[in-house]
Specification:
The chain is mostly helical. It has helices at residues 13-32, 38-49, 55-62, 66-78, 99-121, 125-147; strands at residues 53-54, 82-85, 94-97.
Length: 148
């Protein structure tokens, strides 16, 4: 079977990174189909690793704006996957996974691992490492510039 043609180069860093994230998200969403979406998996994972975290902390970890994050957290709450708890900052509520949230995250874990394996199998070890390094560098550079 003939390999599909390579993607054309784009001159814009933003367009290139957004294309990569759309394609990778499509791969993960295909694995998660029927359970949740990749964006929901990311949010649930952050909350699972930092029980009681508030919206500001989640926003910093995932670099999400308040409006997008609020909308996504409300959806998780409507699905019954997260619950509010008292936070160290009285002005903000914290979040924890509900039992349903733990169940859905546990069900999604093997699918996440499969998506990871599939993507990694399409790259060499050096390409896999380089991908993480390149995206980290780009994210940190953009974060520095956004602060100024």
């Amino acid at each position: 079977m003939k390999a599909p043609p390579a993607l054309p180069d784009l001159e814009c860093a933003c367009a290139t990174i957004r294309r990569a994230t759309r394609l990778v998200t499509q791969l993960y969403d295909a694995e998660f189909r029927g359970i949740l979406e990749a964006t929901q998996f990311s949010l649930l994972t952050v909350i699972a690793k930092k029980p009681g975290c508030n919206q500001a902390m989640i926003g910093r970890v995932l670099a999400l704006d308040k409006t997008t994050l609020s909308r996504n957290l409300k959806l998780l709450e409507r699905n019954g996957w997260i619950e509010h708890v008292a936070s160290g900052d009285q002005r903000e509520r914290g979040f924890v996974l509900s039992s349903a949230g733990k169940t859905v995250l546990n069900a999604a874990q093997p699918r996440w691992k499969r998506a990871q394996r599939r993507l990694r199998s399409a790259m060499t070890d050096a390409e896999w490492s380089s991908m993480f390094e390149s995206f980290r560098i780009a994210a940190e550079a953009a974060q520095r510039l956004n602060r100024t």
